[in-house]
Amino acid sequence: MGTYFDEQETLSLQERSNRHDKRLAEMCRRGCAVSPYVKAAFDDYDLTADDIKSVKDLEKLPVISREWLVSLESGNPPYGGMTAPGLITDRIFTSPGPVYEPHLSEGTLWHRGYRAAGFGEGDIVLNTFSYHMVAAGLTFHEGLRSAGATVVPSGTSSTEMQVQLIRDLKVTAYTGTPSFLMAIIAKAEEQGIDVKADTELRKACFVAEPLQPSLRIKFEEEYGIDTYQMYGATEVGDIAYECREKNGWHLCEDVIVEIVDPETGMNVEPGQWGEVVVTRLNDIFFLFRFATGDLSRLLEAPCPCGRTSRRLDGIAGRVGDAVKVRGLFIAPSQLNKLRQQFEGLSFQIVITREDFRDNLKVLVASHDEISPEKIDRFVKSFRDICSVRPDAVEVEDMAVLESSPGLIVDHREWR
User: Fold this and answer.
1) Which CATH class is domain 324-410?
2) DSSP-assigned states of every residue in 221-253
3) Which residue among 21, 146, 302, 312 sits deepest, i.e. has the most Cβ atoms within 10 Å of its Cβ?
4) pTM attached to this predicted model
5) Domain boundaries, the chain
6) Is pLDDT above 70 for 177?
């Protein structure tokens, strides 16, 4: 299981470094030639394309946060000048903000991660990511097809429908969030179905949400499901993935990953924790040094699986105030937009985790009466802006809410 790898994954460190340097230099030259944003940014920093010859030179450029990207695109939609004018692409995706992303059509997007998890020919895979304006459903679909698997595009169908598909189609593998798989299993057990004995489901590859160690043990020991994790971001695609060793996440071949000090944007010393900053090597969307907001460190030791890329040591937490809830980010900029729509209404979001599922509660307060109709409008706007529906909205006393610090309170513990 999970033994497949291709020749790029076994390059020597020097070969990979040379390849990245060459592709990065080409990306800079093309970006400066066709992208208004890149040309202006290089001018602002007194740089030319020839000043970026290697990965080490990336520190000459600023780190771009998601908030900064939202601001760039809001001021110059759809791509903030990060593409050639009049770019033609096969698809355009969105993520909250909104951020518009041209589809990066590399044939290997997510492909290696699924192959490392043992997904391939003969597998029938339930893809539970949304097939809508977000990139997840279609990009994971293509990664699975590239790996040779048959895809069941179930998307966000009900757990009852997912159980039926698993049984009727003899599904062998799952991709989605771990909490949703747990919800599907709970529904199956409700119906008297023993997932281990009565279905063919034996593999799972998770993205967009942390896999708690306790839940991994439950999946593997109780249900006989071999579990793997992949890591990525909508703005840059796949970043890293687990192999059979399950000891760190191998960096993908088409990305440059830096671990930086969030305050300075400079690379930290090897082995130290810092923010994951990613540059995806491509020739259409010139987003350099995208800050994921995640904290990690690089593992330098060789992996017994045979792949030679460095590995991320998991994700230790988040930088700043943005949080991820049920696989989707909630950022202060989104909440500020919500606040503008509901003047006079104060609110705070509280995130907890129970039975392996994120719970989102919103506390609201006002000096005026809050009608049920206003709460309904608030919930609808919250979902429209943040792409996540609150599990509950509770009216709180204004004095209590004002005395509680922070717009976002996260009580989750990942252990």
Assistant:
1) alpha beta
2) IIS--EEEEEEEETTTEEEEEE-TT-SSEEEPT
3) 312
4) 0.82
5) 324-410
6) yes
